[in-house]
Amino acid sequence: NSGFKLTVFDKAQIEALAMGGLLGVNRGSPDPPTFNILEWKPKNAVNKAPIVLVGKGVVYDTGGLSLKPTPHSMDYMKCDMAGAAAVAGALYAVAKRKLPLHVVGLIPATDNRPGGNAYVPGDVLRMHNGLTVEVMNTDAEGRLIMADALSFGERYKPELVLDAATLTGAAARAIGTQGVVAMGTAPEKEFKALEEAGMAVHERVARFPFWDEYDKDLDSDIADL
Questions:
Q1: Whole-angstrom Cα Rg for the chain
Q2: 21-35: per-residue pLDDT in tens?
Q3: By C-alpha distance, which of 26, 27, 89 is closest to 59?
């Protein structure tokens, strides 16, 4: 009832879009994936190009065949859709306040489970943008579904893209639970605004580097990445 438009793609539409990351992660699940587009586009929008928000929507993450341990790990994984919740909440707030901004939210949604047809370490998936990705650990599912969503978001020619995800426990190991790790290529003014907003609501941002030298860590002998 907030006023934003919601479009939900089913599995057949996701297959037509060739979202191999989202489809691969979903293979072990009895429930089909969805790809959700939330859009608030008022006539008085001041931005010619939209702001695109992308949220990880893994509604339960067992780790797949690279199974997580249960204590203090898998038992919290119904929260692995926190990025999706943040995006949905942001769209709700923007629409409810009738802000003069064109904002698009993208939420790839699935669970990640082991199963007879589940994707396995060593699989190669072809992503939405055509690149191939070698899977080394099925518990790295978040970056696969987010990559498809980020690629899809390019069609909007956005002025800014922000993605939110419970992507890795390494973030908590790096800074604890007292803040949020951020990386990216946005202009400095955007990072400054993000840091100021985080301080205002006590969701502090710890900015990590995004050096070109990291590219070599993405090399694969059998796939593009």
A1: 18
A2: 999 999 999 999 999
A3: 26
Structure tokens at 151: 């690629």
**Amino acid (one-letter) located at 167:** L
CATH topology (fold) of 5-167: Aminopeptidase (3.40.630)
Nearest to 63 by CA among 170, 124, 138, 116: 138
Q: How far apart are CA 51 and CA 44, in angstroms?
A: 15
Annotated catalytic residues are: 68, 143
**C-beta of residue 44 within 8 angstroms of C-beta of residue 102:** no
Rounded Cα–Cα distance for residues 146 and 172 (Å): 20
Q: Residues 6 or more apart from 11 whose CB is under 8 A from it?
A: 23, 26, 32, 33, 34
Domain ranges of the chain: 5-167, 168-225
pLDDT tens, position by position, 37-81? 999 999 999 999 999 999 999 999 999 999 998 888 898 899 999
Q: What are the Cα distances from residue 214, in Å, to 20, 91, 184, 218?
A: 24, 33, 13, 7
